[in-house]
Amino acid sequence: MSSSRKDAFKLPPLDRISQAARRKKALEDQKRKRALKFDQSRNLSLDAFAELTLGQDEDEDETLYPKVVQSGLASFASAFTQSKKKHSPKNHVKSSPATNARWADKCMYAELLEMSCKDVHSDPLPSDLHTSWVALSPVPVGKRCLAITREGPSFTSSKISLRSRLLGKPLLSYFPSTLPTNTILDCILDADWRSNGILHVLDVIRWKGQELADCEAGMRFWWRDTRLSELSSLPPPPSSPSSSQGGSYSYPYPTTLLAVPYHPAPLTIPTLLDIVVPAARNTRIVEVLAPPAHETTGDMDIDTATQISHSLSSDGLLLYVAEACYESGTSPLSSWVPLQEDANSSSMDTFEQLLRRRAEEGSSLAMDI
């Protein structure tokens, strides 16, 4: 009796709401929350201005204003020294349950796109796919994670901590980066990062303290590509003695931030069939910086690094509702089309078949007109 109840509990309800209906509701909820947040911020601004009053005389008593301390830098030296002692110089990332829970399940995780070719009279693809969606393709094979930056050893550098998508546990110790501090990125740690040093950037949640989660998908991806292109390259650390003695170079941490290719709206059927889907089916060739083959001493320089080509395996493609905000957890506002689910079925094949069917129906309709 208990086993049957458990089996029944795991099964989806018979009257399960369709993905399109859940997507519509999620988008309406986002719009309502954004409007509410805007109204609240507007009211706060109005209240702040309402409290401002002009005195009878602009030259009022000095006691109404805070006094500026006229002391030298010596008074601040002790405070700086004390605060500096509190910070550990080590690159170890804290992994307490409370810290892990803070970052757990914060990535926007896509639902598998629901579709089937069995019913020739229905089109399960989103009706507004052409006008209201954007795509990322190819999505590389790797481990989904959050990249969080903190202040580095200098004002021009930062340190990155990678947190796992589901549990929020640290994946690596802090490593150097050219990203600004107080930045949070949605990333994929490449499956072969030890050989290519690549950290793929899917989305941007915060950049240099500026919150971007409430921005629409198109805006976030534009911001991601623009800001990443402005960053300077980070040279890989020199080869270790073991690798210089005949072994291949192994990256101790990711040194290359690589944006997953973005395909903006409109996603016309020719664009999807000729660019987006083929990109998801093929490997992507990129060039990364690597130390020179000869042994070097001291810190590596960009000028002494060499360019090496790497092929990146594709895992599929992601679709986003263009006007959707970034939200934590599994969301119907983002849809996943994997390249290969198992040996017998492929969502990518089904997706392509449905696109071709829609193209044929569109051409036949145009001929009738």
From TrEMBL:
InterPro entries: Snurportin-1, Snurportin1_C. Residues 1-33 are annotated as: Disordered. Residues 125-234 form the Snurportin-1 m3G cap-binding domain. Keywords: Cytoplasm, Nucleus, RNA-binding, Transport. GO terms for cellular component: cytoplasm; nucleus. Pfam families: SPN1_m3Gcap_bd (PF21974). One of its GO terms (molecular function) is RNA binding. SUPFAM superfamilies: DNA ligase/mRNA capping enzyme, catalytic domain. One of its GO terms (biological process) is snRNA import into nucleus. It is found in: Cytoplasm; Nucleus. Its main location: cytoplasm. PANTHER family: SNURPORTIN-1, SNURPORTIN1 RNUT1 PROTEIN RNA, U TRANSPORTER 1. Functions as an U snRNP-specific nuclear import adapter. Involved in the trimethylguanosine (m3G)-cap-dependent nuclear import of U snRNPs. Binds specifically to the terminal m3G-cap U snRNAs. Belongs to the snurportin family. This is Snurportin-1. It comes from Collybiopsis luxurians FD-317 M1.
